[in-house]
Amino acid sequence: MPRINSPSELEKLRQDILSNRDPQKPCITLCSGSACHATGSGEVAASIEAEIEKQGLGAEVEVRKTGCHGFCERGPIIVNHPEETCYLQIKPEDAPEIVSQAVKEKGIVERLLYTDPNTDEKISRESEIPFYKNQKRLVFGSNGSIDPKSIDDYLAIGGYSALEKALFQMTPEQVLEEVKKSNLRGRGGGGFPTGRKWEESRNAPGDIKYVIVNADEGDPGAYMDRSLLEGNPHSVLEGLMIGAFAIGSTEGYIYVRQEYPLAVENLTIAIKQAEKYGFLGKSILGFDFDFTIKVHKGAGAFVCGESSALMTALEGRAGEPRPKYIHTAVKGVWDYPSVLNNVETWANVPLIINKGADWFTQIGTEKSKGTKIFSVVGKITNTGLVEVPMGMSLRDIIYEIGGGIPGGKKFKAVQTGGPSGGCIPENLLDLEVGYDELTKAGSMMGSGGMIVMDEDTCMVDVARYFIDFLTDESCGKCVPCREGLRQMLKVLTNITEGKGSEGDIELLEELSEVAKEASLCALGTSAPNPFLSTVRYFRDEYEAHIKEKRCPALSCKELIAYHIDPVKCQACMICSRKCPADAIDGGKKKIHIIDQEKCTKCGTCFEVCPPRFGAVNKISGEPVPSTIPEDERMITKKSPRKSK
Amino acid sequence: MSEIFVQIDGKEVEAREGMTVLEAAQSAGISIPTLCHHEKLEPFGGCRLCIVEVRVGDWTKRVVSCVYTVEENLVVRTRSEKIDKIRKMILELQLSHAPDSPELLDLAKEYGADKDRFEKEASFCIHCGLCVRYCAEVKKKNAVGFVDRGIRKEICFIPEIASKECWDCKECFPLCPTEALQAAFVLTKSLISPPPSFEPTSEK
Question: Does A607 contact B at CB distance below 8 Å?
Answer without folding.
Answer: no
